[in-house]
Every structure is written in structure tokens, then in C-alpha cells.
Amino acid sequence: MFYGIQDYDKNCPRVHLVMEKGDTVFFHPLLIHGSGWNRTQGYRKAISCHFAGADCHYIDVKGTSQEITERDYLPIGKKLYGFPDDTRLQVCFSEMIG
């Protein structure tokens, strides 16, 4: 999902990457990046990794710009993973690793 960029300057310089089949590229999470439509017969693979310290905690997104993201992602989580209706955007890492 893409929500746009506030105050985006279309004159900002861009770097275009020409990729070959099998190429890999890594982006810093703060770097604005994206791509056009996949015009090949193949498909793209993407991996997104996020790390958090053991002392991280839940921040209620109500009333913030992230509230829209929560509203958009919770139905997906409910459909794919059976999240209950009262779920907040929160992950327990011990449940992920088994």
C-alpha cells in the first residue's frame, strides 16, 4: 500500500536502476523507493525485515497519521491470519519464532 509523500518535489534527483533477472537491491527504510509495473512474464520477490529491541512497546496509533494504516491493514490480517476484531497493530515475537 502506498499513501503518498507530503510536499514531494518532482524535481528531486532520481536514480534509476536497470535490473537483470536474479539481481538484488537493498534499501534503507528511510530511503524513498519504488518501482513501476512489472512488464515481464516473471514475478518479483520481496523480503522486508524489521528488527526491534526487547524493550519496545505498543504505541496506540489512534489520532495519529498511522491510524489510517492500521485501518487498512487489520482487515488483511483478519482475512489471512484470523486476527480477532479487537486486534491492534502489535506483534509478539515469541509467537513468530514458535
Automatic annotation (TrEMBL):
- Where in this chain does the entry annotate a coiled-coil region? none
| Single GO MF annotation | phytanoyl-CoA dioxygenase activity
Q: What class of enzyme is it?
A: oxidoreductase
Fetch the Pfam families from UniProt: PhyH
EC assignment: the record states: 1.14.11.18
What are the BP-aspect GO terms? fatty acid alpha-oxidation
Q: State the family named in the UniProt similarity comment for this chain.
A: Belongs to the PhyH family.
Q: Which PANTHER family match?
A: PHYTANOYL-COA ALPHA-HYDROXYLASE, PHYTANOYL-COA DIOXYGENASE, PEROXISOMAL
What's the protein name?
phytanoyl-CoA dioxygenase
- Provide the species name: Mustela putorius furo
